[in-house]
Amino acid sequence: MRAWMAAFFRITEKGFVYGKLVHTVKIYVELHQNSPFLVCMDIQLAKKETVDPTYLWIGPDEKPLTGKLMVKDFLESLSGLYSCTLSYKIIKVQTQKEKMVKNRYDFMMFAYREPDYSYQMAVRFTTKSCVGRYNELLFTLLKKILNNLISDLSCRIKQPSYKCHFVKLPKHGLIPELFIAFQVHAFVPQWESACDEAVDCENITNHNILQAKDRIAEFFRSQAFLFYHDYNKTLPAMHFMDHSFQMARMDSCRSGFGKNEGLHSNCATCCEINGKNILG
Predict the structure, then answer these.
(1) Range of the domain at 235
(2) Domain containing 188 — which CATH number?
(3) For residues 53 and 85, what is the distance between their CA atoms, to the nearest angstrom?
(4) Which tens digits make up the pLDDT trace of 195-244?
(5) Residue-level pLDDT at 171
(6) What's the CA gap between 32 and 75, in Å, rounded?
(7) What is the DSSP track for 55-124?
(8) Which residues is 158 bridged to in the sheet?
(9) What is the pTM of this model?
(10) Within a domain: residue 30?
(11) Which residue has the higher pLDDT, 69 or 88?
(12) 82 and 170, same structural domain?
């Protein structure tokens, strides 16, 4: 679970977020989590004495509230501008005259959710030739092995492909190699309804994806150990090439959410609610 600390605000040890005069404070709150306490005051003023302070909050639903503000079980519909007016008095010692001061503080709260993880992976295998049926047989067998390896995690291999290329190595001739690529995705029947019913859907599916990633990485590590560390074993003509395994995580956002590093640079990996959904 990502904390809201990756945002444009100052937060105290007690979890209070103070406003800033003139500037809007951006806050990111994960769906179904509680927001930090929003304090209708800037941190400089909080260190001073205030006389007869009153606080008036106006949120996206335009319902007036007073005091410190915390939003529980944050939902998409709660994203938007939260404005607070602090009224207090300054009393001159000599004349005891009272002057009313009003400060406005704006907080923009964004609902976000974790992205759905998937992985792009690539490996290379030696082969005798770029023609013939054995390359396709190896490719089919590898897909079956990998899918069986992660099926209990509700994950699957998608978009598998391979190409045969001739590789020139120093002091060697052209060597045919299979370049195999595939993606690893979480797969749940009726995905949208399953996620709507589970509050921590992304946490569950992402945990499964990370386990699937680790299993596949371990599988290829074991292949390398088997072929390259058992010196009494004869290498088959088609085998995994040590150090050829590569992977990169790909993030995707659910409908209504997206990434905007320019607008949300301090929460760049978050899937924030789209701006048009905030504005209605």
Answers:
(1) 116-252
(2) 3.30.70
(3) 10
(4) 555 556 777 888 999 999 999 999 999 888 776 666 566 667 788 988 89
(5) 81
(6) 6
(7) EEEE-TT--EE-SSB--SS--GGG-EEEEEEEEEEEE-TTT--EEEEEEEEEEEEEEEEPPEEEEEEEEE
(8) 183
(9) 0.72
(10) yes
(11) 88
(12) no
